[in-house]
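Budget justification, computational time. The allocation requested in the original proposal was used primarily to generate structure tokens for proteins on the priority list. As evidence of use, we reproduce two of the resulting records. The first is shown immediately below.
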Amino acid sequence: MVLLPKESPRPRDIDFDLVEKIGRTIHGPLRAYFRSRVEGLDNLPEGRALLVSVHNGGVIPADSIVLGSHLYRHFDYARPFHFLAHDILWRLPRQATDVIERVGGVQGNHVNATAVLEADRAMVVYPGGAWDVYRPFSQRHKIDWNGHMGYIRLAVRTRTPIVPVPSVGGHETLLVLTRGEWIVKLLGIQGFIRGVRGIPVSIAFPWGLSLPVPPHIPLPAQIDIQAMEPMELHNLPEGRALFRSNPKGDPDLLTRLHAMVQQKMQQGTDALAKGRIPLLGKLF
């Protein structure tokens, strides 16, 4: 008996009618409230692409919403985009997760991510996850994905170009004081939610000193986002050799490729942050 290779599940089709209806409703108010500027979207290659960005702003990551709105509008609500999201969203009522999936949300795991890229679609990922989204205010312009390198394996295995997408401003919609790792240790609830290592404490509107729940109202910080030139890691010598002797990826090569992307992201972040006034952004 010959065992045929297992096919990856096909990602859910985007409901473009719903996306356009939502997009045309929220794009104008979002752009006015956050004075958002999203540039470089013409850098996105056709077909599969892995947009790698930073997570900002706590439980309401305003810059992620702004990016999604600009992406769909730029491509006239005709190109499918997917967004790899935390499992916790799939603990919501089914009606809510159905809407999330119809507009491009994908439950974050390797199988789903591979299926999206092998269907020649574009996908946005946030390697830093929960660690990134609540980094302290003093580190708001620092690219630190806490050693998460799964996106490198994914891009090289599927021969997908990586598009670095630095973003500034989202971390000014609230003031993160601490990731709260010490609180989790004190309560003895490490690992209660996958990827969550602390209970963050912030100063946020309208609650003042607050935890992630109840949700805050983001402050109207100016949000700037830049899609940079694609990086074809799979065509680099390190990329071609990544899985040659180790099916999980050679650790040294993996670290080297990860450092390349982080460095490019940091350069882009520094350029966006130069001359910026917190909350007000760039006045000129």
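The second record produced under the same allocation is shown here.
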Amino acid sequence: MKIIAGSSSPMLAKNLARIMSVEIADVSIKRFPDGECYVKINEEIDHAIIVQNTYPDENIVELFLLQDAARRVANKVDVIIPYYGYGRQDKIFESGEAISAEKMARLIEQDADSIILINPHKEHIRNFFTKPVELCDAVPAVAEYFKGKVDAVIAPDKGALYMAKKAAEIIGCGYNHFEKTRISSNEVKMEIKDMDVEDKRLLILDDIISTGGTMRKAIELLKEQKAASIYAACIHGLFIGNADERILQAGCSELVATDTIETAYSKVSVAKEVAKLLRL
């Protein structure tokens, strides 16, 4: 058994290798002048565990090539996708659309014996696969990081409430969520009901931070209500267009993400949670 580290999540691959006491395979990955990807596995492997995101686009092709190369040398190929890119288009919203989450599943499973997804945007994405799929939850790892640091966990919307509740149970604190009310086509009102946040240490937890607009507004509202300190955390930190800077400038005490996408804020590793599934 060896881990094949793709270009997109080397930190997670290294953490996983350390925890499982397995080696990282010798793999060559490079780009030709025209941008095309080249991969080569430089050793024989019986059981290959590939760690690679499907975000951004160039990492998708790299994943497919790593799978193809692994299938040619290994008897078993497991694929870990830390961040499942294209997962947010999980159904048809308007006629004529592609269901990208389903198409990605069909392509990925062609050269995979099993797949592990870490907090995909919707759990039902696993149903798009015909191969065995395990869902890894990074919330416990994030919650452990904040033990003793916060008095309550806040979800930025109702959809993330289950994460706030689970994290709060592990931390041993309260939880709540922002309720959104649309005022007009370009104005949304956000408020927390039935919770006094004054002088409290708060954690806002979401699955993905992309542009950071919702997170920034949530921080500003909590600051207005005189929260003592506000932490912002997510599983997948995309941080598009300096979103991290805007969040910190809004009054965030600390910004935390996991190592599903490697950034300066990857302070929590999901390697232990992934290792548990690989050892089943």
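A brief technical remark on that second record: The longest strand covers residues 174-184.
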